[in-house]
Amino acid sequence: MKTLNCADAGFDCPAVVTADTEEEVLAIAAEHARSVHGTTVTPDMAEQIKTLIREA
């Protein structure tokens, strides 16, 4: 299981994304960023976010 804390990506947000794969975490995080924070995740941002994904 993989996890990503939204706060680790620089947002003042308690959300935690959890999924089976890194790709699923990125997809969920991108939708969260768009719908909650009004931010579009670019390919460069996605590469940075990948470094923040941890094994649960």
TrEMBL record:
Pfam annotation, one family: DUF1059
Highest taxon of source: Bacteria
Protein name as it appears in the record: DUF1059 domain-containing protein
